[in-house]
Amino acid sequence: MRFRLTPRETSFYDMFAASADNIVTGSKLLMELLGAEPPARAEIAERMRAAEHAGDDATHAIFHQLNSSFITPFDREDIYSLASSLDDIMDFMEEAVDLVVLYNIEELPKGVEQQIEVLARAAELTAEAMPHLRTMDNLTEYWIEVNRLENQADQIHRKLLAQLFNGKYDAIEVLKLKQIVDVLEEAADAFEHVANTVETIAVKES
């Protein structure tokens, strides 16, 4: 790691860890949604909305700290990118849950559970990785695994699209379900953006 002669604002590390922990909460709510009957989903959506608001608060706190700090632990643009990508993940997960409720989806297509399992695993890895930003140690396996998970998510997404267009669903239902699986795919992409940003930071700090 590069040696520094100036002190650094270290509260960013705690804020990134809190943001990632909140994403784990969101991923658990997604898993809960899978096993819930339609009448119970509105309450899950409310808790997801609260988690998304908590994520927004965490992101705003990072931006405020960034704007008020003279010395930062790593490049300002990387701090902004990391915070924004973490926020995107939460936004996409909340959107997916909200769409399931708004569209009154009776049954999600087979394969959505695999999408959500990938997101849950990526959330766990991201939460585990954030504390390592302090030392930049033991991060290589994290971004490699998240990139692998994103590739897996791409394959699941393509299979889901093929399933949606196989004639089983009517046109309106296809549009609704496609929007949901597309948003879940965007969440997987956002996890990859976080991992890529962490890799960029680690390379710069090495």
TrEMBL record:
* InterPro entries listed in its UniProt record: PhoU-like_sf, Put_Phosphate_transp_reg, UPF0111_domain
Task: Spell out the Gene3D superfamilies in the cross-references.
Answer: Phosphate transport system protein phou homolog 2, domain 2
Q: Name one Pfam family in it.
A: PhoU_div
What is the similarity comment for this entry?
Answer: Belongs to the UPF0111 family.
PANTHER family recorded: UPF0111 PROTEIN YKAA (PTHR37298)
Q: What is this protein called?
A: DUF47 domain-containing protein
